[in-house]
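Retro notes (design track)

What went well: tokenization of the new backbones is finally stable.
What didn't: we kept losing track of which sequence belonged to which structure.
Fix going forward: every design gets posted as structure first, then sequence, in one message. First example under the new rule, 147 residues:
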């Protein structure tokens, strides 16, 4: 299978008409902001997980928590403030390379825009820890009933 894959943060669908297909949709997950240790990256957790092995009571050593939008009060995305973040894993069949360019709205010549959005990461503060920067869709969806 050729092509490339990426996560579209903030949406449950992939862009249409660009040789892009949905692999799966889910919700963003990651380490708890106030916990030391755990992963620094965000994960697009499928809505229908499969467990290789599950033993009640022993999954708490590095738990994965849901991720919420928490934009600054003067920033866009206020309509989804404190809502959980959906995600879509997309497969691009017509291109072999993907690149997220921070602080740019337009792609270089001969590149294709998959989606545009806002650069977001973990909140800055004494009880928060490092995480990766993600491009969150400029027209976000949220997961109903979980805010």
């Amino acid at each position: 299978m050729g092509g490339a894959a990426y996560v579209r943060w903030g949406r449950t669908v992939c862009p249409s008409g660009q040789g892009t297909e949905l692999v799966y949709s889910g919700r963003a997950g990651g380490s708890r902001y106030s916990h030391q240790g755990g992963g620094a990256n965000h994960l697009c957790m499928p809505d229908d997980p499969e467990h290789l092995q599950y033993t009640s009571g022993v999954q708490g050593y590095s738990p994965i928590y849901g991720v919420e939008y928490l934009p600054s009060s003067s920033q866009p995305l206020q309509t989804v403030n404190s809502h959980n973040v959906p995600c879509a894993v997309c497969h691009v069949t017509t291109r072999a390379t993907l690149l997220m360019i921070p602080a740019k709205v337009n792609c270089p010549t001969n590149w294709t825009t998959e989606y545009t959005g806002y650069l977001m990461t973990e909140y800055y503060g004494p009880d928060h820890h490092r995480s990766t920067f993600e491009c969150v869709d400029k027209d976000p969806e949220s997961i109903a009933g979980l805010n």
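Added context from the reviewer: Residues 1-47+62-147 form one domain.
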